[in-house]
Write the structure tokens for this entry.
Amino acid sequence: MHKFRELKVWQRAMAFTVTIYRESRAFPSEERFGLTSQIRRAAASIPLNIAEGSGNTSKKEFCRFLEYSLRSGYEVMTAIDIARGLEYFTNAKADELISEASEISAMLVGLMKSLGWVSSN
């Protein structure tokens, strides 16, 4: 079992999720059940899966949940690109958010490697 609140990646993912929620407030109201919901759910899934996975006694199982977090990070990056294309984010804001999501993804991969995770690629 891991103390997920002490993990830097969880802390960064939590801050990122709060940022995504704040930034997506400006999306048009017609996106409430579309892109706004999707980007928020994907962002929240990153720290949620880290926390859920940390409850496993098996490193392999923990890595499985970290992979879910990683996939959610990629989903968020794609949603940010969609929001940029729709001009809901400026290029500068989208680049900033994608940079943070990329760093969190790299941290997840680093944590998985430290737990003995082996990429299938």
